[in-house]
Structure formats: structure tokens, C-alpha cells
Specification:
The radius of gyration is 27 Å and the shape is elongated. It has 3 domains: 179 residues, Ribonuclease Inhibitor (Leucine-rich repeat, LRR (right-handed beta-alpha superhelix)), CATH 3.80.10.10; 36 residues; 83 residues, Immunoglobulin-like (Sandwich). It starts with 10 loop residues before the first helix and ends in a 10-residue tail after the last helix. The protein is of the alpha/beta class. It has 8 helices and 15 strands. Keywords: Cell projection, Cilium, Coiled coil, Cytoplasm, Leucine-rich repeat, Repeat. It holds the Pfam family LRR_9.
Length: 355
């Protein structure tokens, strides 16, 4: 596997994200480092000891660590990362809200590590494997007596009493489920341990991937490599690609080699469905919609389509399917309303009687 260096938490990055505090990091109370490809939490507990709110969602963090000195931290967002165990938050004495949505936590018993966080009121574990275990909710609310909501659902007094009464039974069920999941993860790691770098990017993005921390890392690795490659190609490019003819008219072009479907059967609007790779990050897609054509850049490659007649750009919609990854453009025709007005203005034909 080709090594790729992920974003590290540097002083420069933290200062950049602290413009609201005049780039002074020692007195920061809120910090957002989301979507930075951060793989490891480090240095923040030494640089920003006064943090009250910390956003680290949508990164590649696999372990909760190095937060022990954040005594004033009230809200920690670690959603959409690669975390498999809850740990190392015991010294975050002020923690009130913890968001671990969409991680890979299978060791549900690790919620016991939150017992010392007596001020914790809200816990989010939605989208983790452990939430599929039978008795998941009962187990958590019985163990963590201080929380008031779990996965955004309030915990009632009677619910907690019942959960405590069947805690022994829940513990047995949870441990069995954990062992099963542990076995599954070992098998999954073995399957994913060998990454075939001979697979080209097009085949990779089109293929169905397993939902796993290793897969998220591989997706990020390939994306970053492609991003660097695209930049090199842009720098080394000597001849610009022309998207217009000599008369200045736009040309149809499919340099991106994507499949598409253009539908003009609707009298009111056009629709354009473009098959974009499902797992391709939206940051690699740029849409430039003009009255007579659309230019879409996909990972540096151009797709351009010229419309039969003008559209209304400010009423057009560009949507990305969460299931297929496709781009869907819906574009109202400019002349649709004027054609209706003209048709209404025309006199109705008279029926002449036969003489």
C-alpha cells in the first residue's frame, strides 16, 4: 500500500480555525476541526485547555485520546469517525454532551468508562454496530444513571427502573453480541488487510465496499492521491482544453467519460441525470450552470452539455443522490411561460357552419 500522510493537528491549523478569537489559541472556548482528515487527536489538551466546545466530526480518528486536560469541555462531537471503543474521557469533568454518531463502536461495555462523567446528560450512539444489539438501550440507561437522553430520546423514570431490574439479563445478552461482533471484525480485518493497489480508481469507485474503518481510510487515501495527481496535471498542462468553438459557441463534451441521460419530454423543464461514482466526494465535483449549457468538472475532467433552448438558471436545482451518487439537474425552460402567454393571447379558432 502507498503511504499517505493525513492531516495532523498543527498549531498553524488551530490558529487558522481560531480567527474568531483573533488567532489566539490559549483562550479558545470553541474549536471546529471537522472534515480535516485528522487521524489522531493530539496537542489540543496542552494548547487549548479552556475549550468548552470541540467539533471533530467527519475525520478519520480511530481512538479517543489526549483530552484529559480539558477540564472545562462541555460538548464533544466525534461523529463520523473510526472509533471502536469509548475511552479516556474520565478526566473531562464538565462533559455534558457527547456525540459518537456513525462510528464503529462494537464494545458496548466501554460505556462504563463514562460513569465518572457525572455531568453527562446527552449521549449519541446512533449508527454504531452496538446499537443493533438486543437490549442495547436498556443496558446503557441502566449503566449511565446520569444521562437524560440517549440518541435524542428522553429517558423516563419508569424506563430506567425497568432497565435496572433486568440489567443482569441485559449484560449476558450484550456480552454474547459483543463476542459475535468481535469475531466478525477479525474476519473483516483479514479480508481487508490486503489492499490491491493494482485496482484502478474507476473500478474502485464503482465497486461495493464493506462498511469498515479500513474502507474509510482507503477511500480517503485514494481521494488524496487523486487530488494530488489532479493538481500535478493542472500544473503540467501546457494546452488548455477548449469548450467553445471559434464562434464562441459551447461544445458538447464528455472528457469525464460518464454515462448520462438527458430528458426533454417535459414541456416545462429539462432533466439531466449524470452517473457520478457513488463514493466520490462532492468536493471533487463543480457545477457551472449557464442559460444555454452546463459545465460539470468531475475530478478535473469536464462534462459539458448544450441545451436545445435556454433555461432559467436561478430556478434550476442540482441534487446528489445519497444512494447512487448520481447528479440530477432539473432546469425550467425559459420559453415555457412565454409560450403559454402567447397561446392564451391568440384568438380562438371559430367554427364555421356549413351553408
Amino acid at each position: 500500500m502507498i503511504n499517505v500522510f493525513f492531516t495532523t493537528v498543527t498549531e498553524e491549523l488551530v490558529r487558522k480555525k481560531s480567527e474568531h478569537n483573533e488567532c489566539v489559541i490559549g483562550t479558545l472556548e470553541e474549536l471546529s476541526l471537522h472534515q480535516e482528515d485528522v487521524e489522531k487527536i493530539e496537542y489540543l489538551h496542552n494548547w487549548c485547555k479552556g475549550l468548552q466546545i470541540l467539533y471533530l466530526q467527519s475525520n478519520l480518528i480511530s481512538k479517543i485520546e489526549n483530552l484529559n486536560k480539558l477540564k472545562q469541555l462541555e460538548y464533544l462531537n466525534l461523529a463520523i469517525n473510526n472509533i471502536e471503543k469509548i475511552e479516556n474521557l474520565e478526566r473531562c469533568e464538565s462533559l455534558q454532551k457527547l456525540d459518537l454518531t456513525l462510528n464503529f463502536i462494537g464494545e458496548l461495555e466501554s460505556v462504563r468508562n463514562l460513569i465518572p462523567n457525572i455531568h453527562l446528560r446527552q449521549l449519541y450512539l446512533t449508527g454504531n454496530p452496538c446499537t443493533e444489539y438486543e437490549g442495547y438501550r436498556d443496558y446503557v440507561i441502566a449503566i449511565l444513571e446520569q444521562i437524560e437522553t440517549l440518541d435524542n430520546v428522553s429517558i423516563t423514570r419508569s424506563e430506567r427502573i425497568k432497565a435496572k431490574q433486568k440489567l443482569r439479563e441485559s449484560e449476558k445478552t450484550i456480552r454474547r453480541a459483543q463476542k459475535e461482533y468481535e469475531k466478525f471484525r477479525e474476519e473483516q480485518k483479514a479480508r481487508l488487510s490486503i489492499v490491491d493497489d493494482t485496482i484502478d480508481d474507476e473500478s474502485f469507485w464503482k465497486s461495493t465496499s464493506e462498511h469498515a474503518p479500513e474502507t474509510r481510510l482507503e477511500i480517503s487515501r485514494r481521494s488524496r492521491l487523486a487530488r494530488g495527481k489532479d493538481k500535478k496535471e493542472e500544473v503540467g498542462e501546457t494546452k488548455a482544453i477548449s469548450v467553445f468553438n471559434r464562434d464562441g459557441r459551447p461544445l458538447n463534451m464528455n472528457q469525464a467519460k460518464v454515462q448520462f441521460k438527458f430528458d426533454d419530454s417535459d414541456s416545462e423543464s429539462y432533466t439531466l441525470d449524470i452517473s457520478v461514482y457513488k463514493f466520490l466526494d462532492t468536493s471533487y465535483i463543480d457545477v457551472d450552470l449557464q442559460p444555454i449549457f452546463v459545465k460539470i468538472t468531475i475530478k478535473g475532467k469536464i462534462f459539458q452539455y448544450v441545451f436545445p433552448e435556454e433555461i432559467i438558471t436561478n430556478k434550476s436545482k442540482v441534487q446528489r443522490s445519497q444512494t447512487t451518487g448520481h447528479l440530477l439537474l432539473t432546469m425550467p425552460k425559459l420559453n415555457y411561460k412565454s409560450n403559454i402567454i402567447k397561446s392564451k393571447a391568440l384568438p380562438k379558432p371559430r367554427l364555421e357552419k356549413n351553408r
